């Protein structure tokens, strides 16, 4: 790129020589016109670039608020389920089963909603889709704030059918960065950093509020935070996404079923399907592990809400620092495919390590040694979270780079739907594995072993797939 691209050609030597040969009338007439045109183009590019930067900054802020509001509930939910189940006469086994059912119901709703939000992005644009998403989120928290029985608790998950704020954020990042792969990877990494900033504060604050006797105040705070995001989205986000003409002239006339078929056809492409398969199966593994671990920590190791929330916050803080500092160098060093392999390997190693710590600790530790137990569990959780983050970012960077801009909304919706689909079965599998042994500590060994084995199988699957693609490319050449 040279200076002409920025409208600074008047300063170049060759330009001056040519203008001195031209007749004065022609030079005087054309020079201002050419300069004006260049300045206009430069101004338009500057305005577009400025709007893109503002959209990204507002999206980062929205994701911080979204994560804060969502994560406020995470350390509270197991205790809320326990409280409401106990009031209804449930025992420990029923509490675990109900908690798993609640997680499965939430992810079933998300599975339905994620493709719808992807279609909304293509049809009504980023701004309107974001407003709808955060308004639905606020409604969910409003119901949760007054959920005094299990029916209302399950009802609070229904509005989350459109709770896909991170999908909207990914669409904004992909739109604002255009075809620049490195910029897209960096923006996606920063988006995750924004999420983890809110997610770092959320669990610790939610646990603290729960320990001080109010299981519902965090949900009331989340209503306010979500409404703030509604206002920010309406005021600052762009009206359209990807290709404005496509969205306005074509998508509005396409039936919903055709849009769903289009998303499915994108997912079945040979260069996309293996990555989505890893996301689907890997999501199930993550769900099994994340459902089982809080139950063991609260029921067997007797963690309270603040200790559980502190561990979650530490993991999120580590991921935020990793995304902000090391994500870009790591992506350049080993590439997105290397990030996926590293993430799978890290998760496969950390799962049995967590099982060993829980087994060695058991319930036979004093109050004085409980701090050390919390530190050990938190440390392993941090490395597990870093591995999962590397896996997720590597997959999304690869998938969004394999399709055209006007297909990214449909692809991201499909990705989120598959991830939620995987988490429908995960909680049930996790609680079943725990219950298959005489106590949850022994059952967690099954959870860890299955999780590690599947992650290693996914690594092998990707290696075989990449070799097959390489051989096909070689034959074509």
Automatic annotation (TrEMBL):
Highest taxon listed in the record's lineage: Eukaryota
GO CC terms, sorted = membrane; nuclear envelope
Q: Where is it located?
A: Membrane
Residue limits of the Major facilitator superfamily (MFS) profile domain? 55-467
Region Disordered, as annotated, extends over: 1-47
TM stretches of this protein: 54-73, 104-121, 128-147, 215-237, 272-296, 308-330, 342-362, 443-465
* Membrane topology field: Multi-pass membrane protein
Keyword Isomerase belongs to the record? no
Q: Where this protein primarily resides, as one coarse class?
A: membrane
What keywords is this UniProt entry annotated with?
Membrane, Transmembrane, Transmembrane helix
Molecular function terms from GO:
transmembrane transporter activity
- Keyword DNA-binding applies: no
Q: Name one Pfam family in it.
A: MFS_1
Q: Which InterPro entries match?
A: MFS, MFS_dom
Which intervals carry biased composition (Basic and acidic residues)? 30-42
Its recorded name reads: Arabinose efflux permease family protein
Q: Give the originating organism.
A: Nitzschia inconspicua
């Amino acid at each position: 790129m040279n200076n002409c691209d920025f409208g600074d050609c008047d300063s170049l030597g060759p330009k001056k020589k040519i203008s001195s040969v031209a007749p004065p009338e022609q030079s005087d007439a054309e020079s201002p016109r050419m300069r004006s045109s260049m300045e206009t183009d430069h101004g338009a590019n500057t305005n577009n670039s400025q709007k893109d930067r503002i959209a990204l900054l507002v999206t980062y802020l929205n994701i911080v608020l979204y994560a804060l509001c969502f994560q406020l509930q995470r350390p509270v939910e197991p205790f809320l389920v326990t409280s409401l189940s106990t009031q209804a006469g449930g025992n420990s086994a029923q509490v675990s089963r109900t908690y798993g059912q609640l997680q499965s119901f939430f992810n079933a709703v998300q599975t339905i909603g994620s493709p719808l939000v992807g279609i909304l992005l293509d049809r009504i644009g980023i701004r309107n889709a974001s407003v709808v998403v955060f308004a639905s989120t606020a409604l969910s928290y409003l119901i949760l704030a007054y959920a005094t029985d299990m029916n209302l608790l399950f009802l609070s998950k229904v509005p989350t059918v459109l709770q896909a704020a991170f999908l909207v954020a990914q669409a904004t990042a992909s739109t604002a960065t255009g075809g620049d792969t490195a910029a897209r990877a960096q923006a996606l990494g920063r988006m995750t950093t924004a999420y983890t900033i809110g997610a770092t504060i959320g669990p610790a604050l939610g646990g603290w509020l729960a320990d001080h006797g109010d299981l519902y105040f965090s949900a009331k705070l989340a209503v306010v935070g979500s409404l703030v995001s509604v206002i920010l989205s309406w005021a600052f986000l762009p009206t359209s996404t990807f290709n404005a003409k496509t969205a306005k002239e074509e998508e509005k006339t396409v039936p919903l079923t055709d849009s769903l078929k289009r998303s499915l056809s994108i997912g079945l492409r040979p260069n996309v399907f293996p990555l989505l398969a890893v996301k689907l199966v890997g999501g199930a593994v993550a769900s099994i592990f994340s459902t089982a671990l809080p139950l063991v920590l609260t029921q067997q190791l007797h963690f309270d809400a603040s200790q559980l929330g502190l561990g979650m916050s530490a993991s999120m803080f580590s991921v935020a620092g990793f995304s902000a500092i090391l994500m870009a160098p790591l992506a350049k060093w080993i590439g997105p495919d290397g990030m996926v392999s590293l993430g799978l390997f890290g998760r496969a190693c950390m799962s049995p390590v967590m099982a060993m710590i829980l087994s060695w600790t058991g319930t036979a530790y004093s109050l004085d040694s409980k701090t050390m137990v919390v530190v050990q569990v938190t440390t392993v959780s941090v490395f597990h979270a870093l591995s999962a983050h590397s896996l997720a970012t590597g997959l999304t960077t690869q998938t969004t780079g394999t399709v055209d801009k006007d297909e990214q909304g449909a692809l991201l919706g499909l990705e989120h739907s598959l991830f939620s689909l995987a988490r429908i079965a995960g909680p049930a599998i996790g609680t079943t594995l725990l219950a298959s042994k005489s106590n949850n500590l022994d059952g967690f060994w099954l959870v860890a072993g299955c999780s590690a084995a599947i992650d290693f199988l996914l690594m092998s699957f990707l290696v075989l797939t990449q070799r097959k693609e390489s051989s096909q490319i070689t034959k074509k050449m």
